Amino acid sequence: MDVLRTPDERFADLPQFPFAPHYVEVDGLRMHYLDEGPPDAPVVLLLHGEPSWSYLYRHMIPVLTAAGLRAVAPDLVGFGRSDKPARREDYSYQAHVDWTWAAIDAIGLTGITLVCQDWGGLIGLRLVGEHPDRFARVVAANTTLPTGDQDPGEAFLAWQRFSQETPDFPVGQIVNGGCVSTLAPEVIAAYDAPFPDDTFKAGARQFPTLVPTSPDDPAAPANRAAWEVLRRFDKPFLCAFSDSDPITRGADAALRRLIPGAQGQPQVTIAGGGHFLQEDKGRELAAVVVDFVTANPT
Questions:
Q1: Which InterPro entries does the record match to this protein (predicted)?
Q2: CA dist 93 → 43, 137, 209, 294 (Å)
Q3: Disulfide engineering: 141 pairs with which of 32, 96, 117, 181, CB 3.0-4.6 Å?
Q4: How far is CA 198 from CA 88, 172, 195, 266, in A?
């Protein structure tokens, strides 16, 4: 496998990002993660999606740690400071699940409160279905676990077409376009930082094609199996979707209806947040997470 590694200098002096890097090796690849707060505190696992990285959680981490929680935010393989296989064929849904689980296991995380958005949910909810004993709570934000048995919606299909047809793949501008607020140029540049040129973007280019959109998708059977467990998952489960995301709008209703742990939890809507609600309303989402953990002790 030909693997690229973004030079460290690309991550120097990023705005509002004072966190030290940490690394773990999985399947011969180096994965980066942030690890802030007391090491023996209840852990909140923050999983990003497409095409962002742990920088997305910079507004949330200080709120979580101030509340006495440990915040762990990995960069998925192909993103952030993690290694980037150079060929698109090296990426699959299963590979991302395996890489992420290997990192969680190597770091030694237990009693996890999962916070997941976008592909963070496609991977994270799958892992909850496969390893429910390692998770204490779940906060799902603008995400779902698709099996290909439902229409993905025109907004997603339009994004999928754009992702494959655009000659350039302007990561920072894509994140900016998924926010209600307009990002500062230096923040857009921070989202571009992991990708010095297009050769580093194989994972970001491949992600949209890996979402199951038909019943015979290669990932569909494993996601259906995970759903069988999620339909019995009775640990606290909270949906905290934003009010301005055309991609995942309405998916929270199905999660609340189908997952027993969501019963009795408040219906939370983050006002003024786009698809990347951590960017638009990160502190507000973090406060929701803190309240959720406090209200649902293990």
A1: AB_hydrolase_1, AB_hydrolase_fold, Epox_hydrolase-like, Haloalkane_dehalogenase
A2: 25, 23, 10, 33
A3: 117
A4: 12, 13, 7, 43
Low-confidence ranges of the chain (pLDDT < 70): none
Q: Phi then psi for 115, rounded to 5 degrees? A: -115, 120
Annotated catalytic residue: which of 35, 245, 252, 280? 245
* Residue 252 annotated in active site: no
CATH value of 3-295 in 3.40.1620.10, 3.30.70.100, 3.40.190.10, 3.40.50.1820: 3.40.50.1820
End-to-end CA, the chain:
42
pLDDT tens sequence across 117-136: 999 999 999 999 999 999 99
3-state secondary structure of 34: strand
Catalytic residue among 35, 118, 252, 280: 118
